Task: inverse folding
């Protein structure tokens, strides 16, 4: 099992999202549109018990007039700070504003969660990150963290805004980039009763902490009730942990073999959010199509 040092991980995370010119542009649904009501994004902090000793920032997006929308579907994003920015590669709040207004997706909240950090620092003076342990480890711990800590926290903040969040798996999806992508798959794979939809951008289905086993597991395990959207790039990473384009191709082949509801988009880009950001509206529409209504209250 290959384990990065904390300092090496910090350097790797800083490098891997550097972008260069690629043939991807953001479409109309990723741009602020006149006449489209804008939702709100609020920032919060959380101290974890499941990942003891860690603190993190997280953000909650609620659509305009959430109290009138009925029970809101929920989309969770790892590396949340990047996804919640209105002027970055992904621009999820802007995309949600537009797609909800057009009724192309159901009314939806989004929970953007950063990886945890410890109180001590790296050699560069920055807080020590718990990102790889949380995201790349193939254990139920991150799903437990979401179930016991972050989803209840999001529900509480939503209630303060007179909004109600859905708690059924059909009303929940999860996504992320790189290690956050494999983390999203791990959560839904292990806990399909919590999440039914996965969005992975340049997912790290490689041997950082054993994630290269997933294609074989998908082929042999009983089919699970999850829907998966994979985005990858031909010029992604190739290093001692694996070959990212090949790993994503193997995941797609396994999902096809096992007859999953999946979609695979291989682009020409590298290890960044350019292609995934350009596909964000299309990927959310695909993931959330035919979403059933919330179960009747008991």
Result:
């Amino acid at each position: 099992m290959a384990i990065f040092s904390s300092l090496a991980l910090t350097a790797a995370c800083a490098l891997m999202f550097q972008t260069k010119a690629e043939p991807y542009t953001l479409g109309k649904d990723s741009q602020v549109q006149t006449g489209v009501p804008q939702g709100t994004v609020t920032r919060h902090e959380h101290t974890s018990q499941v990942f003891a000793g860690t603190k993190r920032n997280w953000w909650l997006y609620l659509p305009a007039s959430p109290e009138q929308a009925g029970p809101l579907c929920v989309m969770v994003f790892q590396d949340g700070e990047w996804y919640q920015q209105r002027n970055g590669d992904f621009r999820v709040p802007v995309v949600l504003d537009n797609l909800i207004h057009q009724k192309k997706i159901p009314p939806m909240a989004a929970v953007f969660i950063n990886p945890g950090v410890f109180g001590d620092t790296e050699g560069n003076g920055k807080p020590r990150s718990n990102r790889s342990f949380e995201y790349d480890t193939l254990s139920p711990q991150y799903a437990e963290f979401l179930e016991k800590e972050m989803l209840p926290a999001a529900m509480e903040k939503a209630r303060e805004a007179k909004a109600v969040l859905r708690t059924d798996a059909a009303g929940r999806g999860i996504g992320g980039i790189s290690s956050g992508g494999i983390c999203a798959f791990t959560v839904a794979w292990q806990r399909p009763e919590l999440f039914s939809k996965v969005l992975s951008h340049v997912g790290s289905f490689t041997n950082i902490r054993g994630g290269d086993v997933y294609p074989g597991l998908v082929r042999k395990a009983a089919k699970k009730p999850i829907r998966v959207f994979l985005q990858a790039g031909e010029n992604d990473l190739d290093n001692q942990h694996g070959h990212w384009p090949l790993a994503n191709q193997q995941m797609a082949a396994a999902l096809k073999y096992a007859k999953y509801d999946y979609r695979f988009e291989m682009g020409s880009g590298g290890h960044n959010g350019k292609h995934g950001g350009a596909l964000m509206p299309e990927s959310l529409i695909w993931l959330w199509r035919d979403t059933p209504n919330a179960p009747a209250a008991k």
